[in-house]
Each structure stands twice: as C-alpha cells, then as structure tokens.
Write a structure and sequence with these properties.
Number of helices: 7
Strand content: under 5%
Oligomer: single chain
Length: 247
C-alpha cells in the first residue's frame, strides 16, 4: 500500500509525517463516509467489467454503436475528486476565476485533513497506486516549493466561458406566412338608419307598420323611439319641400 503525505504549506495542508497503516483515529471534524472506500472499489470494478464486456462482445457492424473511448476510464483526477467529495460533500468545483493550482491545492488540503472514524478503513487506500503516488509526490513538491503538474485526466476550467452560439447557429427562423385578411365586417344598419330608410321609402307607413318592418329586420324598439324618428324624418322632408329642394 502506498502511504499518504499530509504536509504544511501555505495552501492549508496540515503538517504530518507520511504514514503507513496507522491505528484508527477517533472521528473529528468532517469524517469520511464509512463505506466510501468500498464504493470507490465497487465503481472501479464496475467500470472495468463494462470495458471488458465491450471488448469481448463487439457490437455487430450494422449497429450504430460508438466504441468505448479511452477517456471513459477512471483517471487519477477522477479518483482524487471522488475522495475529496467523499470527505467533504460541500467541496466546490473549480470556477472560471480560480486558477488550476489554487483549485488543486484546495483539493489536496481536504484530502490531507480527512479524519477516519474508529474501526473504518481509510478511503485513501482504496485508490489506485498511481493516484496515491501522484498525491504523495505532488504534496511533497508543494511543500518544497517545487514545480508540479496537474493529475492525469484534469481538464482546466480557468478563464473559460461557455461558448456562445454564432450568429445564425440557432437555425433560421421559419418564414412568416402572411395571414389572409378577413373580409371587412358589414355592419347592419342601426335602428335610426333603418327607421329613416323605411319612412323615406314608405311615407304612408304608420308606426305599427314601421315596427313590423323593424322586427322583420331583427330590431326590437320601443314605440316612442319609432314615433320620434318618424316625426323627425317627416319634419325634415317638410323643410326640404318648403325650400323646393324636393317635390
């Protein structure tokens, strides 16, 4: 088993000598999940089984299935990130404003400060030898002020913004179809127009005759209204005759 270094730096990694198998410590602070190490082993075993199954049972040529890519394998960075989040569930992902090494030092600090509940295995030991070796060697370099590189599989988010679709990339809008204009509504003549028209066409009609004609045309009016309109039209006609405008 590869040991875990926990060294003091300006990145809040505590000072502690490298350790091998150590007596179980009492739980303090943020303790690792009791079954976290087992879950990591189970996840890696499942991934390995899937890759083996895909390799031994290739899909028929006529099936449109993509081959299993190498980048689907669990990387050193994946293992370190899983361990970090298993130790501190509130661990924040890298933002576009946080440079790579500040983010990774923050991750190393969480791993270094992990406390193991009494009677539980250290989840650090469930990582691959490659991940453990990277962590120990890198933390030592951080403490010594030496240059170091991010773990395999790490993809930086520093300074990157989500790509905005280029103009027109959303697809051309469907052309607008001109709506056919509805024919103009022909307003039925009002009661006033209807009564005046009837009086002009039928000067001899009485109020009852006019009311019957209005009912037939769909109008319901009071006698007083018909009488007033009829009298108004007749008065107008009388004035026009006196001026000799009509016979």
């Amino acid at each position: 088993m590869t040991t875990k270094d926990q060294l003091t730096t300006s990145t809040a990694i505590p000072a502690q000598a490298a350790r091998g198998p150590a007596p179980a410590k009492k739980s303090a602070g943020k303790a690792a999940n009791s079954d976290f190490g087992a879950k990591m082993k189970e996840a890696k075993a499942k991934k390995a089984a899937e890759r083996a199954a895909a390799a031994s049972n290739p899909a028929p040529a006529d099936e449109a299935k993509l081959p299993l890519e190498d980048d689907q394998a669990i990387t050193v960075y994946d293992e370190l990130l899983d361990l970090t989040r298993g130790t501190d569930r509130g661990f924040a992902s890298q933002s576009i404003r946080e440079n790579d090494k500040d983010y990774l030092r923050r991750m190393f600090g969480v791993i270094a400060k992990a406390t193991i509940p009494e009677g539980q295995d250290d989840p650090f030991d469930s990582m691959s030898a490659e991940a453990q070796d990277y962590y120990n060697a890198t933390v030592q370099k951080v403490q010594d002020g030496e240059d170091w590189t991010p773990p395999p599989g790490f993809v930086s988010k520093f300074g990157k913004k989500a790509d905005k679709p280029a103009a027109g990339a959303k697809g051309e809008k469907a052309p607008k179809v001109a709506k056919e204009k509805a024919p103009p509504k022909v307003r039925a003549p009002g009661v006033s127009v209807a009564v005046r028209t009837m009086v002009l066409k039928h000067p001899s009609w009485t109020v009852d005759d006019l009311k019957a004609g209005l009912v037939k045309a769909g109008h319901i009016v009071k006698d007083a209204t018909v009488t007033t309109l009829r009298s108004d039209v007749n008065a107008t006609l009388a004035v026009m005759r006196s001026l000799k405008l009509i016979d």
